[in-house]
Design a protein that fits this description.
With about 70 residues, the protein is an alpha+beta fold. The chain has 2 helices and 2 strands, in the order H-E-E-H. The chain has a two-stranded antiparallel sheet. The longest helix has 10 residues.
Amino acid sequence: MVKSARERLGLLLGGSKAAEFSARLEAPADGVGLEVAGVGPVRLPLRAPQVKKLIAVARPALFGRGRTP
């Protein structure tokens, strides 16, 4: 019998029964920000000058896809 992703996750987290729950938080978009060292605050939509700055400070991740820890 196929179980839902929520049920499988509940079992993986150690419970013998999956519990259903959810949470929600709403916040105004102007309360969310992103700042990158060497670039400063990032504003959307991105403009070409800021994209060039982001590319200049970007580095490959040291973890992730195709790598084992």
